[in-house]
Design a protein that fits this description.
single chain, 431 residues, alpha/beta, GMP Synthetase, Chain A, domain 3, 2 domains, four-stranded mixed β-sheet
């Protein structure tokens, strides 16, 4: 006999209601709402932070937004307008206590999820960044994607400097770093995650770009800001070199570009050279007052470690394949001639080789493997790496670098002759 089926309409009303209300009651229990919410008017939104060291105490500075000013600003500030940020500093025996000290002087809780930039003071970098990195990787309110830069002197001074193009200085600093990395490629874009990853690699080395105030006194007031020309500005500088988490030296911009070629981090850049042999027939050998500039549009680097037996030093074979376009020229040579193009490409190849050799040589003087050769050797020669690891700094300083560069000039522009050459020809025709 089959199971007896009871029509729905015969079920009592109270039983049907209980079937409907029970799931709803469970949903109410589960979906209890945002019990730990924090209202926006209770937060201090931090756009940039600076961390310094003073004796045995941590000094943390904050660039905090003033929401009413930022939300009402659609462009540069008008006369008498309020500044969009405020900067203040707290101290403590640890970084997190220094941060919580802010509750003694601010009615709002610091909010770091929108923090764009972290400025590290030079003295702190010399002592080591391990504790600072630990804070960023351990706490959920600190983003490991924050852009990291280093300043000579106090990091707070960098936070106080105003920018005209972008109303929030922290955002402006980050965008400047990204723009340089994508268009000139001398300084790598470094965030907290990549910094921690580099310092825990086989080489235990990393780099941080420098930022400094260029010009006169810092622009920190409304009167200084409301001018077409500011007395000072923020500018990217050298490249700081870290080994075992500590600052050990600096690289100039040109040397940093050479290191970036080895690290395969050159996206675009501009190279300017003298016309050289192209003008020997008309102006004599060695004349270089005339120049040409080429924009490198693409670059790819491959590296092969060669470890021989005996006492032979390690060799690294670096091959760079690049191409670009001619931006400008004052050279009188005829660009319709194939040998002229080949000569320009040869000069560019030699210049890139020189930049790479010089940059790598400076890292060898510091005995700091910021190019990541240690990881390559570890992967290719794991057994030998275990023997070399203990004295890697010395072995790195003895590496023989062999570079090969293949540069192709893809485009010359709308004309094959410089305006100087055209003008010279027109004057000759008149005569």
């Amino acid at each position: 006999m089959g199971e007896l089926s009871v029509p729905e309409e015969t079920v009592p009303m109270n039983r049907r209601m209980s079937r409907t209300l029970l799931p709803l009651a469970l949903m109410v229990i589960v979906l209890t709402g945002c019990w730990d919410r924090t209202e926006l008017n209770e937060l201090s939104i931090t756009s940039a932070t600076a961390v310094d060291r003073k004796g045995d105490r941590w000094v943390v500075s904050y660039q905090v937004l003033i929401p009413s000013v930022v939300s009402g600003a659609s462009g540069p500030m008008k006369g008498g307008a309020q500044l969009p940020i405020t900067v203040y500093t707290t101290e403590g025996p640890t970084i997190r206590e220094a941060i919580y000290q802010s509750t003694l002087e601010s009615p709002r809780t610091l909010f770091f999820s929108h923090n764009r930039v972290l400025i590290v003071g030079e003295e702190l970098a010399k002592g080591g960044l391990s504790e600072l990195i630990d804070v960023y990787l351990r706490n959920s309110d600190s983003r490991e994607t924050v852009t990291v830069l280093i300043a000579k002197g106090e990091g707070r001074k960098i936070l106080e400097q105003l920018l005209q193009i972008q109303i929030i200085p922290g955002d402006g600093i980050r965008e400047t770093m990204k723009t340089e990395s994508e268009n000139y490629s001398a300084l790598p874009y470094v965030n907290m995650y990549s910094l921690a990853k580099a310092l825990t690699s086989e080489s235990n080395s990393a780099v941080i770009p420098e930022i400094f105030i260029s010009g006169g006194a810092p622009v920190t007031s409304e009167e200084q800001f409301n001018s077409t020309t500011m007395s000072s500005k923020l500018k990217l500088g050298k490249l700081a070199i870290l080994r075992d988490g500590r600052l050990v030296g600096w690289l100039k911009v040109r040397d940093a570009l050479g290191v970036n070629f080895i690290r395969n981090q050159v996206k675009k850049t501009v190279i300017s050279l003298g016309c050289g042999q192209q003008n020997e027939a008309t102006e004599g050998p060695g004349h270089s007052s005339s120049m040409f500039a080429v924009k490198l549009l693409h670059s790819a680097t491959t590296i092969k470690p060669v470890l021989q037996g005996g006492d032979e030093p390690l060799r690294m074979l670096v091959k760079v394949k690049a191409e670009g376009t001619l931006l400008e020229t004052d050279c009188k040579a005829d660009l319709d001639r194939q040998d002229t193009i080949k000569e320009m490409e040869r000069q560019l190849e030699e210049e890139i080789r020189s930049v790479i050799r010089n940059g790598f040589g400076e890292t060898q003087k510091l005995q700091t493997d910021i190019v990541g050769f240690a990881d390559m050797i570890h992967r290719r020669y794991p057994k030998r790496w275990r023997e070399m690891k203990k004295a890697w700094s010395q072995a790195y300083a003895e590496i023989k670098l062999e570079t090969q560069v293949d540069f192709t000039l893809r485009r010359l522009g709308l004309t094959s002759k410089s305006f100087t050459k055209l003008d010279e020809e027109s004057r000759g025709g008149e005569e």
